[in-house]
Amino acid sequence: MKPRTILPGAMTIDEAADYVSLSKATLKNLIHKGDFPKPRQLAGKRVGILVREVNEWLETRPVSNQLPPPNTGRNEA
């Protein structure tokens, strides 16, 4: 049988912060202000942020003329 790659449908707040290159505190602040997708209850106390909604949020960010700061892991070649 051929192996399959399954993409995640949801991620934790820590994973979402890493995914969008923001601190966890900044991300929580954006969620609280209603400026970032809210976590969904997955089961019991387990919550996750939908990857699709995060990607949609990223697409709405304005284009910037600034280069990424060096701490983002951007390759300086």
List the SSEs and their pairings.
Blueprint: E1 10-11, H1 13-19, H2 24-33, E2 40-43, E3 46-50, H3 51-60
Antiparallel strand pairs: 1-3, 2-3
Low-confidence stretches: none
Q: Approximately how much helix is present in the residues?
A: 25-40%
Q: Structural class of the secondary elements?
A: alpha+beta
What is the β-strand count? 3
SS element count, helices: 3
Give the neighbour order of strands across the main sheet: 1-3-2
Distance between the termini: 41 Å
Return Rg in Å: 15 Å
Largest sheet report: 3 strands, antiparallel
The mean pLDDT is: 89
**Judging from the principal axes of the Cα atoms, what is the shape?**
globular
Strand residues, percent: 5-15%
* Order of helix and strand elements from N to C terminus: EHHEEH
Note down, in words, how this protein is organized.
A three-stranded antiparallel beta sheet has the order 1-3-2. The relative contact order is 0.17. The protein has three helices and three strands, in the order E-H-H-E-E-H. A hairpin with a 2-residue loop joins strand 2 and strand 3. It starts with 9 loop residues before the first strand and ends in a 17-residue tail after the last helix. It has a domain of 52 residues.
